[in-house]
Amino acid sequence: MSKKILIVEDEHSIATLLSYNLVQAGFETAVANDGRKGYDLAVSENFDLIVLDLMLPEMDGVEVCKTLRQNKVNTPIIMLTAKDDEFDKVLGLELGADDYMTKPFSPREVVARIKAVLRRSETTKVQQDDASASFISGKLEVYPDRFEAFLRGEPLEFTPKEFELLVYLMENKNRVLTRDQLLSAVWKYDFAGDTRIVDVHISHLREKIEENSRKPIFIKTIRGLGYKFEEPKAG
Hints:
Blueprint: E1 4-8, H1 12-24, E2 28-32, H2 35-44, E3 49-53, H3 61-70, E4 77-81, H4 86-94, E5 99-102, H5 107-130, E6 135-137, E7 140-143, E8 148-151, E9 154-155, H6 160-171, E10 177-178, H7 179-187, H8 196-209, E11 219-222, E12 226-229
C-alpha cells in the first residue's frame, strides 16, 4: 500500500511541485494551503508523514506542529523554512518535528528525506515494540510502548523527541554518551556539529523529571564528555 503524505504549503507552485514528485515516487498526497486546514486534515485522517511549511496563513507551522504533538498526533513531520535560521531549526525540532529543510530545495532531495524519515520511523516503531515493557528508576517510570511516563505516580508530558531521548538515556543507564552520539541515535541526522539541540532537550527533560534541575539526580552532565543517566541514590 502506498504511503500517504500530507503537504501543508501555501505557495501553490511549491505544493504542486512537491505533490507531483511524490506521486511520481509512488506516494499518495493530500494538500492543504493553510495551517488550520492542514491541522484539521492531520487529526482527521491517517497520514504516514507531514511536510509542513513554517510560514502559513491562519495557523503557522510552529503552532501546527506544537498542537499536533500536544494532542498525541505522532505522525513524522518534516518542516520547511525559507530562512536558514538556527532558531527556526532548533524551535521546530524542539516541538517534535523529525527533520527540516531550507528553501530552495530540489524535489529529489525532498523525496530522499521523506524516505529516510519514514525508514527511521519504522525502525523506531520496531525497536519500541521489541523493547522491554518499562524502565523504572527511583520514582520515575517510563513505558516506551505506550508513550507514557510517570514521576511519583503523576503523568509527565513530553514531545516525541524528548521521550525518545529519555528512553535512550535510560536504555544506556550509567554509560557516558557524547552529544554527537545522542544526535546520531535519537535524531539520526547529521547536524554538522550543531549539538545545541541536545542541550536544549536535556534541559527540558530535567525541568520535567528532576526535583531541582540545577542539581539533577537522574541526568548528570559529564564535563567535557556529555551526559549520563544514573539511578538515584536511595535515601
